[in-house]
Amino acid sequence: MLRLVAGRIVSSIGTLLFVGFALFAMTRAGPGSPARIVLGADATAAQLAQFEQANGLDRPFLAQYGAWLSDILRGDFGRSFVTGRDVGTEIVNALPVTLSIVLFAFAIAVVFGVGIGIAAALRPGGVFDRVSRLLSVVGLSVPAFWLGIVLIRFVAVDLRWLPPGGYAPLSAGLGAHLQTILMPAVSLAVYYIAVLARMTQASLQDTLRGDYVRTARAMGLSSPRVVVYALINALPPVINLAALSFGYMFGWALIIEQVFNVPGLSRALLNAISQRDFLLLQGIVFLFTIIFVLANLTADLVNRVLDPRQRVAA
Amino acid sequence: MSGTGRMEGSGTGGPLLRIEGLRVGFRSADGGVVEAVRGVDFSVAAGEAVGVVGESGSGKSLSMLAVMRLLGSPARTTGGRVMFDGQDLLALDEARMRAIRGRDIAMVFQDPQSSLNPALTIGRQITDVVRAHRQVSGAEARRIAAESLERVGIRDAGKRLDAYPHEFSGGMRQRALIAMAIACRPRLLIADEPTTALDVTVQAQIVDLIAELRRDLGIAVIFISHNLQLVAEIVDRVVVMYGGKVVEDGPVEAIELRPRHPYTGLLQACVPNLTGPVGPLVAIEGAPPRLGRMPQGCPFSPRCPHVVEACIEEMPPLEREAELRFACWRPQ
């Protein structure tokens, strides 16, 4: 088991190195030098060269990549040569906002998605089965940003139940905090509720037909216990999907943050892109990669705990 | 506490289980009902071993699932009674039926590969059964589980409790399932083709095990099989089913000596004799009747070598002659 975990962690690190390299290469492949943006259109070639030299932009590509990577390993994301601010600090300032919305959305998606999926699987043709079917149509076809705008229009503008945008940190009180992140989180979650509900329902319906479920019933186990028997075996694909969803949510969160005017990572990222702020851009995208890899790693490890066959399989 | 709530024998000397006119049907696409079990009657005495024999589709497994009330949609019981200890199982509410399953009547199935939960240890699965029926501590349930596992011939049972099903061979898994089934000392064990998915040598071991449990623990057994010879080794009585009906029923010696229904005779001839001279393999011509296409008369009439007009027109009644019951217009 320990060796398997170690192997899985090593391969995750490999993924990070590869993605980091691709990211670094693509950032630099785009048009426009940060020197030109910082110094303006009037800057002379000598000034540009001096700027590039001062910021290490004239060094060979691999040397730049190596330096960036070794800095990151020490927890240093570098200092933006556009704004002069520390990239790590900028991320640390913006991340809690995005994280708060995504975590809340993820919790909503898992609780409702898995809950509706289980209820639908247990009663085919029942209320939740119909809810699940309706949800999958609505959830999969309604874009999150549009839902966000609709929510702002009705819940905030017409009903005045919630503020139409902005962000109050947790330090401003839990109530105020939840008020600002509720609509963004719901907009973000609806699609994933639909996906997770469908997956849970399909997977559980499948395992409920299993021979071991019939055995459990033939031995007189209670219905809840029988459902647990089926559920343990139904969960692995749901957990994998949940982990992927968690990663994707960070991507969608960028758009949702714009809709609700929330000062999260989206603002920092958009600024970084428009200003060719390589280090900030790399830092944020690399952070997303780490989150994505960690989520999948966690799902893998949880599944190994759930399925004893995976523990011995190499 | 061992007897809490357990139904005690009525003491009238009646059979432990009496199936009366049992019918199982499937709802068909056009809204009608297609019957797969068409009025099955037979009984099992306490401690008796009965073999239920027939080809696939004869309705033998469906009948037993109906007895356990484990039929899944779209199959459902459409008629009859299942008297166990003087009460009709088909009339019980689900909670009381659940209390009987595993405690008074347990069932093991064909494929030990898929019949155990892959995510839970063997011990957990047996203790769950124990604790579903008896108020015992975890330690006590574990002790009972180890005892059951040992009872079915698994060595080092205490340690094997922590093994997962994938760490067991097919034969050992079937043993583990039987251990689950006998953990609460039921009075009836229904084994639905328990050896079909196993190697021949392992098959013999499982058959021997079931015979031994029956002898030592006094558990009545219903052994479902398509192999008449295999069943004959361990049962007292054989019930032969065809086309959703009982066609012959009697003590194993009498049936082996002189089967009266032509179908039973052909079933007997189908299993090659391994000790005698080598002859050609016998097969029964044709295929069993399809659901919803049951002949009007005897269901075996289209394949029967002795068929006469009466067989095609009318189903013969199940009549008793000496120790045997058989349903045939032209008994052999």
The number of distinct helices of chain A, counting runs of at least 4 residues, comes to 13
How would a textbook summarize the main sheet of chain A? none
Q: Could you tell me the strand content of chain A as a percent range?
A: under 5%
What's the shape of chain B? globular
Low-confidence runs of chain A (pLDDT<50, min 5 residues)?
none
Proportion of helical residues of chain B: 25-40%
The CATH architecture of the largest domain in chain B is: 3-Layer(aba) Sandwich
Please report the two chains with the greatest interface, counting residues with C-beta closer than 8 angstroms to the partner's C-beta.
Answer: A-B, 22 and 31 residues
Task: List the secondary-structure elements of chain A in sequence, H or E.
Answer: HHHHHHHHHHHHH
Summed up, the domain count of chain B is 2
Radius of gyration of chain B: 20 Å
Main β sheet profile of chain B: 8 strands, mixed
Termini separation of chain B comes to 53 Å
CATH second-level architecture of the domain at 96-265 in chain A:
Orthogonal Bundle
> What name goes with the CATH superfamily of the largest domain in chain B?
P-loop containing nucleotide triphosphate hydrolases
- Give the total of beta strands of chain B: 12
Name the average pLDDT of chain B. Answer: 89
Order of strands, widest sheet of chain B: 6-7-8-3-9-10-12-11
Distance between the termini of chain A: 10 Å
The share of residues in helices of chain A is: over 70%
